[in-house]
Design a protein that fits this description.
With 240 residues, the chain is an all-alpha fold. The chain has a single domain, classed as Phosphate transport system protein phou homolog 2, domain 2 (Methane Monooxygenase Hydroxylase, Chain G, domain 1), CATH 1.20.58.220. Helix 1 packs parallel to helix 3, helix 2 runs antiparallel to helix 3 and helix 5 runs antiparallel to helix 7. It is globular, with a radius of gyration of 20 Å.
């Protein structure tokens, strides 16, 4: 078999992995968007759809891992080629986790169905989800270009999501303090808000992986963080 033919087959294998990551990303984005929509509108049918779709991401991650392992065994890639395959494995794991967070959010729709969600809280959750999904979409676009500069820019924007999450966290605590009957539904909403905030973290992780794939180096410095929820309880009502 000619070396040209071997290279062509290897390129097709890499294209397959890239295509499957793009498909996983699209599925993960849709699951999260639908989960938030189901939560805001207390749509149990849509929530169940999200829950049932989680198996799609699980299967996709498993297929990507199997293909990547076979490719490594057959081609024995080194340097940039090996980083490419290992990066795909890591990104697939991040996207599978995003799907899990969407599923977990959808599972909480029934828990808040009887009480509903105050409009101000719904707007806060929608805004948080919009930021997280925008970051996820943009980092998947960067995956297609492998631009280390754009990956770094996305990594440095993670504090925007943290700030919105902290604000929503405080608002939910206020609702619970005002009326004990709000404690149960607001606790579920706190978990949902944290799920969405974590999606931003996974997008940042993907950005860091892309940077490594492109440069062979890890990004310098700590990623920006603006999650101040750990200090809210200590500050008491003044923090609210």
């Amino acid at each position: 078999m000619s070396s040209t033919h071997i290279v062509s087959i290897y390129d097709e294998e890499l294209k397959y992995l890239t295509r499957r990551i793009s498909e996983m990303g699209g599925t993960a984005e849709q699951m999260v968007a639908d989960a938030v929509r189901a939560l805001v509108n207390t749509d149990a049918a849509l929530a169940q759809k999200v829950i049932s779709e989680d198996v799609i991401l699980d299967q996709a991650e498993r297929q990507i891992n199997e293909k990547a392992i076979v490719t490594i065994a057959k081609r024995q890639p080194v340097a940039a080629d090996l980083r490419e395959i290992m990066g795909v494995i890591r990104i697939a794991a991040e996207l599978e986790r995003v799907g899990d967070l969407g599923k977990n959010t959808a599972k909480r729709v029934i828990a808040v169905q009887s009480s509903g969600i105050p409009r101000t809280l719904a707007r806060g959750l929608e805004h948080l989800a919009e930021l997280a999904l925008t970051q996820l979409k943009e980092v998947l676009d960067v995956f297609a270009t492998r631009s280390p500069e754009k990956a770094t820019a996305i990594r440095e924007r993670d504090d925007e999501i943290d700030a919105i999450y902290t604000s929503l966290f405080r608002e939910l605590l206020t609702y619970m303090m005002e009326d004990p009957r709000n404690i149960t539904p607001c606790t579920h909403l706190l978990f949902c808000a944290k799920n969405i905030e974590r999606i931003g973290d996974h997008a940042t992780n993907i950005a860091e992986t892309i940077f490594y794939m492109a440069t062979g180096e890890q990004p310098e410095g700590e990623r920006p963080k603006d999650d101040n929820t750990t200090s809210v309880g200590a500050l008491g009502e003044q923090a609210l």
